[in-house]
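anyone seen this seq b4? input:
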Amino acid sequence: MEHTIFHVDLDAFFVAVERVLDPSLIGKPVVVGGAGSRGVVACASYEARKFGVHSAMPGTIARRLCPEAIFIRGKHDVYSSYSKRFRSILREHSPIVQPVSVDEAYIDMTGTQALFGRPMDAAERIRLMVNAELQITALIGIGSSKLIAKVASDKAKPDGVRLVPADRSAVFLAPLPVRDLPGLGAKAEESLAALG
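predicted toks r here
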């Protein structure tokens, strides 16, 4: 039986939770973290990303790039509560859920078609449940392996599902830059580029 793996990612998770708590933040450049002279950005909204702000960036640089950004101190207990609810939704669809972080997980959906229909239907069901229960957007990549599912979910942004059939995996990956592979750093990218 062909494996069906979902990679589910809560898009801009910390910012999304802050916007549920305070809807006046919707549409504005929001940065979670980065407070103080040594703070680091934990999450940036798409509005802030347009200015070059990204996670793991020092807050001082983020402020310089996007002076109008609204900086918020993280509420980790609240994020943890949302994360538990997210994982609970996933476990309603498969007993095999592998959390990667507070806002992403892999689900093995192999053999669940009789319960949830085709992979695209099951993915849409999960997305709708996450949105209805958490008011947060979920991106879902579907593939025959974790690698393909992860890369597919990155290509599902900002608000969608991307299915890569097993027999199209190589065709899907071939035109993408090596940097799109998960866990690949700048040095590894340079080494691979040198090898062609």
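The first strand starts at residue 5 and ends at 10. Residues 76-91 form the longest helix (16 residues). kinda curious what u guys think
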